[in-house]
Amino acid sequence: MGIPRPTSVVVAALCVLGASSAAAAKPAHAPRHRATARHAGAKRLVRRRHKHVRVHGPLMHDLRGAPGAPAITGVTYYVSAWGSDANSGLSPGQAWRTVGRVNAARLRPGDGVLFQAGQVFSDQELMPASSGSFGAPIVFGSYGRGQATLSKGAWFVKHDLAFEKLAFTSTFYGGSAFKGPSDDITLDGVTISLSPGNQALGLYANGQHWVIENSRITNTGLSGMLLNGDDYLITNNVLDHTGLDTTNGYNNHGIYLDASNATITANTITNFADSAISVRYRNSRISANTISGGQIGIDYYQTDSTPGTSTWTDNAISHTTVASIFICGTAEGCHQPLESFTITSNRLTKTAGVYMNLQPTAGTYTLAGNELA
Length: 373
Known about the structure:
Elements: E1 76-79, H1 99-104, E2 112-116, E3 120-121, E4 138-143, E5 148-150, E6 154-156, E7 161-164, E8 166-168, E9 172-174, E10 185-188, E11 191-193, E12 203-213, E13 216-220, E14 225-235, E15 238-242, E16 255-260, E17 263-265, E18 268-272, E19 275-279, E20 285-287, E21 290-300, E22 309-313, E23 316-327, E24 340-344, E25 347-350, E26 354-358, E27 365-368, E28 371-372
Parallel strand pairs: 1-2, 2-4, 3-5, 4-7, 5-8, 6-9, 7-10, 8-11, 9-12, 10-12, 11-13, 12-14, 13-15, 14-16, 14-17, 15-18, 16-19, 17-20, 18-21, 19-21, 20-22, 21-23, 22-24, 23-25, 23-26, 24-27, 25-28
């Protein structure tokens, strides 16, 4: 199913002025993207309540170059291609050899596992068997210069985990619609780059209180990120060449935001198939991103039954071919929006299409200081 195309330019002439409008109508069912996650139905949102926690401890000695990385406060285990799974794992000289040995380990909150940088580990996907705890996440990272590569990706339903300075060449999955969410997860300095011709997501997340920062996602057949749940911080990342598989019938985005109360700031998103950031739930905060090279810069499809206020400001959006900013409405067969929108100080440069198409909402529009080029 393709993106519903904007039917008219509703506010292009207002985007350099302050304005507000409101309209009400009974919502209709909006077209949804088909589930693109690993398990059928994985886009059904499953939540559980946890105390809001974001932990950033002191520098970890083995993760030089990753400021703010959670510290390993417990036992550190090492993994090397030259090691043996019969070893203790307690030093580089006694390193384990495989991801499978890591998956079998009984890790405790505060423990860490470090893979030798520059080496490739391809026996299994990383499937942590244990969760961390408040203030003591279990940390997975690299030791030495650069990143270790885990070619099978990651898959877990655990909480309080941190992933630092690692590379993945298959999808990173955290949380599940069927088995439950994964909450309080941090990715910092991670690279996800898939092989040519793939039909996969870069990252799938289902849970609350995720931080994804200083990371890079490239060459994905489907969306770069698919985020379900609540309270995400996505900052200082690079997403490039996402949605390369144009034959799968899905809408493919840089970031597919199926989560409420998310902050997406200071990212660079380029060469995306459909939208750079596609929003479905309330209270998105999208600011200071550099977006270039795709059909739509930022769009909104009403999926949430609870209205909120989304604030999109200070984004540089260029080289779009359909719209810089698009709010889907009943004219395109979507739900009428319930959300209120504050759209200010964005810099918009298009290749084709329109600058803005903002369909009537039951909330309000506030527009000010947007620049057209």
